[in-house]
Backbone:
DNA sequence: CCAATTCGCAACAAGTTGTAGCGATACCGT
DNA sequence: ACGGTATCGCTACAACTTGTTGCGAATTGG
């Protein structure tokens, strides 16, 4: 009733290899042939565990993406700036803007999409917490647009990286930080 | 000294067909075989004119992307809101968020990248003009972060479309509009 | 010892981008 | 009129992808 057990290491090795190749070559250049070969396995071993490349990568990100630090600097502005810094570090990595290809593939796979969206949501928790702290300190009022703040902070940085020239600059981080800070400290969204 | 002339229609037909397929199926599903077939030509005809798929699409966008309207509503906020509305319309088109694949391919082709960046820069002109008008009206001071404002406005909408669920809502447009407006009307970026 | 399941491996299917080659066709300058 | 020249229509090929199928060998539980 139970056959040969699945090599427990193999799954880990495949994930680790995929993460390594992903971060060095980007998503589009990542091939399952490469992953399997470098993990000392066969492409079939990959397909026995993940239905497609996009699902493998979704799991890789879920496993290896470093967690978002929760800065807790004491001020809302300090926290926001820290988040911006962290995001900029990520988007300045060349492989990361190669993730656009992953996002494209994601649209064709509902399950992988759900996995990834859960990941994104989990990773925005520190920002939500930071804002909650600021509310508790009385620094700002309740924030009705809370679910959109993450987009407001990361969006400009991502956009600038995709369409613009070189790496993100400290000045740009300042601008985006102040833009969000101003929105949150305003008395209300509409004057 | 001059051979058979190039069919002047063919180039147009290929561009038009590519635009049609791009807007209905998205970038990733666009194949040059399809383009050629539907334009009544052969794949070789495409390669005789464009070195690669990404360059064809860069030219297609350059040719067919509708221009950004210049609203001139009389107030900075009105203009910003109009831009946000326009951008949301574009990003709510399903094919448009398929453009992430195009952006990915763009990284591997310097020439196409330049073409596209010139396009983006041209399309941000109305926003620059709107801000200049606001400065002339005395509504706001000079804007040092001018080249980043476009990212600030479009970034959150694009990010939200890529990572979030359904289409962009009017409330989100309000938030992003006010966020930029607040930044621009502030006395200075750093308090 | 037997059934079940994975593993290692080879081969295949279908699709993509991009290249090569060739006769036929149409144009330009002389 | 004619020769050079470049495009056109077409076929074929190369190299690569993702994803599937099949089968003997290995390894475990019952």
Residues:
């Amino acid at each position: 009733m139970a056959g040969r057990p699945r090599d427990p290491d193999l799954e880990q090795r495949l994930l680790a290899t995929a993460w390594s190749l992903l971060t060095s070559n980007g998503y589009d250049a990542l091939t399952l042939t490469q992953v399997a070969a470098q993990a000392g396995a066969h492409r079939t071993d990959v397909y026995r565990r993940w239905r497609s490349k996009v699902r493998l990568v979704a799991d890789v990100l879920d496993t290896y993406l470093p967690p978002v630090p929760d800065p807790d600097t004491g001020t809302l502005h300090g926290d926001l700036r820290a988040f911006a810094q962290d995001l900029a570090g990520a988007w300045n990595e060349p492989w990361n803007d190669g993730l656009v290809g992953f996002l494209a593939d994601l649209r064709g796979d509902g399950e992988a999409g759900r996995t990834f969206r859960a990941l994104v949501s989990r990773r925005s928790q520190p920002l939500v917490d930071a804002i909650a702290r600021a509310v508790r300190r009385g620094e700002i009022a309740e924030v009705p647009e809370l679910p959109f703040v993450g987009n407001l902070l990361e969006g400009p940085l991502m956009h600038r990286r995709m369409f613009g020239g070189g790496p993100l600059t400290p000045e740009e981080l300042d601008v985006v930080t102040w833009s969000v800070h101003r929105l949150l400290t305003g008395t209300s969204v509409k004057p």
Remarks:
- Residues 1-5, 31-33, 43-44, 47, 51-53 of chain A lie near DNA strand D (CB under 10 Å from a C1').
- The radius of gyration of chain A is 20 Å.
